[in-house]
Amino acid sequence: MKKTVKFTTAIIQFLALALTVAVVFDVQWLQTMFGIGTGPFAFAFAAIAGGTVTEENYPETLLERDVDDIVVEYKPDRFPLTTMMQNQKSAKAAMARKYEWVEVGYHARSTVTTAATLAGSGGSAVSVPVQDVNMWGVGDLVYVPGVTTGTPAVELRGYVQNVDNTAVAIDVLPVNATNLPEIPSGESLIRLARAAASDDAQTASHGAQGVELWNYCQTFMGQFEIEKILRKIRRYMNDEQVQEDLEMFDFRNTRENARLFGPRAKFYDPIKKKYVYTMGGVETFAGQADTYTQGTISNSQWIDITKKMFKGNAGSEQRLVVAGSEFIASVLKVPSVEKQQEPENIELVLGAKVNKIATNFGEVLLKWHKGFDEAGREHDAFGLDMNHICDRVLEPMQETELSLDKTGVRRVDATRLLETATLQVRYPDTHTIIKGI
User: Fold this and answer.
1) N or C end of the chain, less CB within 10 A?
2) Among 182, 207, 232, which residue terminates a domain?
3) Which of 30-34, 181-185, 365-369 ranks highest by mean pLDDT?
4) Model's pTM, two decimal places?
């Protein structure tokens, strides 16, 4: 008889654990097995997930059960951005609701001409109007890959003799030609190293102008309540552990989605008669954008996508690409990526499992993010340089027991989750938004 009781209890505990995993982690086949969505379980968990958990909204079939506590383990892969940022341990304090920082501008390497020039004569300098005049200094060597000179033909090189800020132009002397040839409008000019004369004691300094960026600290809050009378009844879920886990899961889920898609805003709530602050997610700050045609991605398209992510910025040689399911599926079918799909290429990086993909431009850490699918953006992706994304915390996350019973509000045990923080996205050009069209 004792063996039968122990065996029955073990089965009940196993089914209870499976049921909780099915709901919290959205395991479809387990939900189908339990009939969630049409039976009494759907009602029970709908009650737990929203509002106060009361005696009335607990089915008697669950109240009669007495099993051990079930502690839900959160999957770190469900919140890869949060997980990786926490493991980087890069969070710092924010001292104000509006958090501001200054980026040191990256010294540009290239610009384009804004008008065509005439050919020079007598070896003299020619004024070349340029889009970005601030990147140049006297003594800089100019490389013009689209203009050739001489026999055999070589790409033009020149020397910046003067910088004319008023005319937004540079005076260029020919270096590898007798006279400076004509330079068309829209031609690329590349800044090479600075050259000095043998007796020069100094050169003009180049001060990169700071760029001011800012974000609002958003207060994230969650709360769950359970009636005191319910504690006195034998029930399926001992104390409020599972309710707390469900609320924590939702808390982390919404915070993760805010990091991705959140709007940077300050607005007035006319009902509360208070201002509300929301932080901008990485989409607000990303400095680069790219598109591709939804569906199959070819090798050449994948090369263009990765080139866009890594080229033209001072970022690292690694990008975390969080994306929707359709984008992930398309990338995994790229022939050059398929060849790399070996077990050893799936690694744990900063607490999250990712596919490591080598490209000619850098290493891609590919990660499916359910937040994209939940937002209806299955075909989109964000290419992020994690070295330039970090948390700024105004109020660290805290769990507070609210005295609602003592103050005469409700006879419940209430717990509040709260955190006030923002996202600092540095060097925007190292982050790319990729959209399927």
Assistant:
1) N
2) 207
3) 181-185
4) 0.62
